[in-house]
Design a protein that fits this description.
Length: 707
């Protein structure tokens, strides 16, 4: 569809003067020669309002949308273009949300843009524009390409994937969704295969954004396996793709070189163990896990990983994960141990003052500078507990039930701080009673440059006054910047010298490359000559190969005959083997029966030995008793002998020696009888011992006979 030209109803002098003035300006810009003027400016005077690139894009957009070409529309297009593009960044071309279509992209590709960053997000390109994207990649040195929210499917991606794989300048590719856009890309599982192919082939790309593309678990596994061989990718955003645990674990396991990773809205659940993955990753600096329903258990695994991680995580986003006070208690220990974590977002997690108490205890000894606690159940008590961190710079407590007391206590605290610059307290219970105190505190503070208190019961006059004070602080801050800028200029000049030296080296290397190319051409000529010689040799070899093939066929037939003989002998041997197996089974069964019989006899022998031991113990006890009795008898005989001696002395003293002798004889008889009795007992004991020595020998003989 060609654009329609809008003609003015009345050709006024003002219109003609404006056209003439614009023509003169364009002629001056192109050297004063009308032949140098680009053809686009000769088509319609409305294009004179724009520069050449803007005119080509505006003309093409009118083709896509069917709009009429007019000076008013051209001015509106120029205003839109300049609004999103800045002269401070000449390497960036922003064309997002400008209703561009296929024709516009073709026009852009034909212009061969010099910009290295091109943002085409939130347009209506679709799969039909991929051929124009291929031309754009071929005609430019793009480093950052944004194709988010352009309704591109896996079919369109498949048509440009080879060009993306071969491209050696592309560093960042965005195929996700632009915030606030209703358009989406839909790569799906098949698109994930193409992304895996890109990661396997292109070793230059560093940033990849794929959020909200319905990649699913299987697609996540494909991308994770591709990350295993790709060492260049540093930043990966794959949020809102329903990857679940299997897809995420593959990415975490293989993405060991990632510096930033966005896994938000992927239904992770608390069972995923981040501890193992964070311990192995030494480069990860930023991790986004918002809206994944991790809960306190999932945060526990994450906190253990942060403590043991060696790289040093800088930023962590846990927004909307229902970690509650229990999870914050565990996370506080990790914050205390971490020497690098400086940015933390735990908003929308049902945190109460009980949980903030754990956080407030560790904040003074932590590195946290940016903290987001919005949409929690904080209240004034939490704000008072947070008044102990001197290094914090930014805090967000919006929608957290903060009232006058808590807000004023914290505002008084940051009024004395030299680091705190940003405070958000929107949608709370701050009333107009504290307006004067707020203005007095921030009037004295020249450091804070952002204070957001909208959605409270403060008057419009107070809000305007706050904005003026913040603008004053911003100007003071900007006045301090020139000295920094001067040092930066000196540094850039030094870098420029280094770049010049590098350019000289590069030119020298280019000369060497030209010399190498000359040698290469000579080598190619020599290769052609050798190639002709090789072709003649191949003809002779081909004849020889045919002869060898015939011989091989004959040998194949011989081998087949031998193979048949082998099969027959194999069957016979198999039959013999089966018969031997049957014999072996019979022998094996008999052996098992003999082993069972042997076990039974062994048990009987064990019982007999046990009985013998019991009888031996009884005999030993009886001998011990008899020994004790013998000792008692010996004691009695000794006493009797002493009495006998005494009697003998008395007999010598007495006159009637005969009577004494008779008494002595009688006592001597008694003693002799007792000694005989003792000797008999000893003989019995000696006989029992001999019997005990004989019994084990007999038992062992019986055992041998049984065996």
């Amino acid at each position: 569809m060609r654009p329609q030209t809008a003609k003015p109803k009345l050709a006024t002098n003002e219109y003609t003067k404006e056209i003439e003035f614009l023509k003169q300006q364009k002629l001056i810009a192109y050297g004063g020669d009308p032949s140098n003027l680009p053809q686009i400016f000769q088509k319609n005077p409305a294009f004179l309002v724009l520069d050449e690139l803007q005119a080509e894009l505006f003309n093409a957009r009118c083709h896509d949308t069917g709009e009429t070409v007019s000076i008013e529309r051209a001015k509106i297009f120029k205003e839109e273009f300049n609004k999103i593009n800045s002269k401070k960044f000449p390497d960036v071309l922003n064309l997002y949300s400008m209703r561009l279509g296929v024709t516009t992209l073709i026009a852009l590709a034909n212009q061969k843009p010099i910009q290295t960053t091109i943002n085409l997000a939130d347009n209506t390109l679709g799969d039909y524009a991929v051929h124009a994207i291929k031309t754009l990649l071929a005609n430019s040195q793009i480093k950052n390409l944004n194709l988010a929210s352009n309704m591109i499917s896996h079919i369109g991606l498949g048509q440009i994937i080879d060009d993306l794989c071969k491209n050696q300048t592309l560093k960042a590719l965005d195929l996700g969704v632009l915030d606030g856009s209703i358009r989406k890309n839909a790569l799906g599982f098949e698109g994930a295969k193409h992304i895996a192919q890109l990661l396997l082939s292109n070793k230059k790309i560093e940033t990849l954004r794929l959020q909200d593309n319905v990649i699913t678990t299987a697609g996540g596994e494909f991308i994770g396996q591709a990350l295993k061989t790709n060492q260049s990718i540093k930043h990966l955003k794959i949020a809102e793709n329903d990857l679940k645990i299997a897809g995420i674990e593959t990415i975490l396991l293989n993405g060991q070189n990632l510096e930033s990773l966005d896994l938000s809205k992927n239904n992770l659940r608390p069972t995923i163990k981040f501890q193992e993955y964070l311990m192995n990753n030494r480069t990860l600096k930023r991790l986004n896990l918002e809206f994944n329903d991790l809960g306190p258990k999932g945060v526990e695994y994450l906190a253990n990983g942060i403590i043991q991680q060696q790289s040093g995580l800088i930023s962590l986003n846990l927004r909307g994960n229902q970690i509650r006070d229990e999870g914050l208690q565990v996370l506080s220990a990790a914050i205390y141990e971490s020497e690098s974590l400086s940015e933390l977002d735990i908003s929308l997690n049902d945190i109460t003052p009980d949980g903030i108490r754990y956080l407030a205890d560790v904040l003074p000894n932590s590195q946290i500078k940016v903290l987001n606690l919005s949409k929690n159940l904080l209240g004034d008590e939490s704000m008072i507990m947070l008044c102990n961190n001197r290094i914090m710079e930014k805090l967000d407590v919006s929608s957290s039930r903060v009232a006058d007391q808590g807000f004023m206590t914290f505002l008084t605290f940051i009024g004395e701080s030299t680091n705190f610059t940003h405070l958000k307290a929107n949608d709370n219970y701050i009333s107009e009673k504290v307006e004067k105190l707020i203005l007095e505190i921030i009037e004295k503070n020249q450091v804070i440059i952002d204070l957001q208190v909208t959605g409270n019961r403060l008057s419009l006059c107070c809000l305007n006054r706050i904005q003026k004070i913040l603008q004053r602080n911003q100007k003071i801050l900007e006045e301090k910047e020139p000295s920094k800028i001067r040092t930066e200029i000196y540094r850039l000049k030094y870098e420029q010298k280094k770049i010049q030296i590098a350019k000289d080296k590069l030119s020298q290397q280019e000369k060497e490359i030209l010399q190498i190319e000359d040698k290469k051409s000579q080598v190619i000529v020599e290769m052609e000559r050798i190639k002709q010689q090789e072709q003649s040799k191949r003809a002779g070899l081909q004849e020889r190969i045919t002869d060898l093939l015939n011989q091989i066929e004959k040998k194949k037939k011989i081998i087949e005959d031998k193979q048949a003989d082998f099969e027959r002998s194999k069957q016979l041997k198999q039959q013999e083997l089966d018969a031997q197996r049957n014999d072996y089974q019979v022998v094996y069964q008999k052996r098992k029966e003999l082993e069972q019989e042997f076990e039974r006899l062994q048990k009987e022998l064990d019982t007999q030995e046990q009985k013998f031991k019991d009888e031996q113990f009884k005999l030993e006890d009886a001998i011990a008793e008899k020994k004790a009795k013998g000792e008692e008898i010996e004691k009695q005989t000794a006493q009797l002998r002493e009495e006998l001696m005494k009697l003998q002395k008395q007999q010598f003293e007495q006159n009637n020696q005969a009577e004494k002798e008779q008494q002595i004889q009688q006592q001597q008889q008694v003693i002799n009888e007792k000694e005989e009795k003792a000797e008999n007992d000893k003989q019995l004991e000696q006989g029992n011992k001999n019997d005990e020595k004989l019994k084990p020998k007999k038992a062992t003989k019986k055992g041998k006979k049984k065996k």
